[in-house]
Amino acid sequence: MLDFKPVTIEDKEVIQKFFDKVNFGNCDFSFSNIFCWQNSYNTSFTVEGDFLFFHFKTQGCWGYLFPVGDGDLKKAVEQLYLDAGKRQIPLRIFAVTQKMFDLIEECMPGEFIYKKDRSWTEYVYASEDLISLAGKKYQPKRNHINKFMRSYTWEYLPITREIIPDCLNLYRRWCAENGGCNSEQSLVEECIATHRAFKYFEQLGLTGGALRINGEILAYSYGQPLTKDTFGVHAEKSLYEIDGGFGMMNRQFAERNCAGYPYINREEDLGLESLRKAKLSYYPVILLEKGFLRRKNEL
To answer: Going by CATH, does the domain composed of 5-121+290-295 fall within 3.60.40.10?
Structure first.
């Protein structure tokens, strides 16, 4: 059985070295996401030989992330199969992109079934599109931003330790707008992840920006690079009472923090129709599909 252990902030360097070897580009391979959300998924990890392994629970099912390393992939997958057997669970590998499936299919042809899940699809945009909002299709976005600029006195600030209390105050107000963050499980989990992100902001290597609107921090966003060409946006918040707040935050963050990356990954829609509609309205250039793998002889 593999010797999995909880992820601590001190494990960042070890884990990040493995992530730097691959070019997957999906948000599941972000140390800050794994660290901040590990309570939600009971995430643990281990390094065995040339590979990094993660074990976690999602949708009521235990499983693993795609093994990360530059050794014998077939041997790494077989290690997961043996570990799953000892835990008396079927082998499931989650957050698998087509690229990952192809890698496994190459070394273990015909052994796995790949099933995609639309709610896990990630939205990847051209940075220039989100910065310029050029063309007729983005006219409604420009209209909202222009109205915002006419309606409010605002300034953009990088997130520093000094304004994190103000960001957390905004988060509390956002929770109140959404019926509180202490009842619905998904909001409880997000609340834990948000406070963890701000507590370890510098150690996680997060980059963030906030809008001070009429003297108050009323919007923020943060994230970090996923690969050399893709920046991952992990969170974005604004009060709904601020007309155009989300659109302005989106554009300002892209311009000031993501211009050096060709692509911006704004992660999943979680199967929420309203969120899906909002993400599609920015016209992603890539819909990064994901799913899970299971062996053909297992249910």
So the answer is: no
pLDDT of 228-257, one tens digit each? 999 999 999 999 999 999 999 999 999 999
Angle between helices 73-86 and 98-107 (to 10 degrees): 100
Sole residue written with tokens 């921090």:
217
User: What CATH superfamily classification does 122-268 receive?
Assistant: Gcn5-related N-acetyltransferase (GNAT) (3.40.630.30)
| CA nearest neighbour of 268 among 132, 103, 116 | 116
Of the pLDDT bands very low, low, confident and very high (cuts 50, 70, 90), residue 299 is: low
Is 144 in contact with 243 (CB distance < 8 Å)? Answer: yes
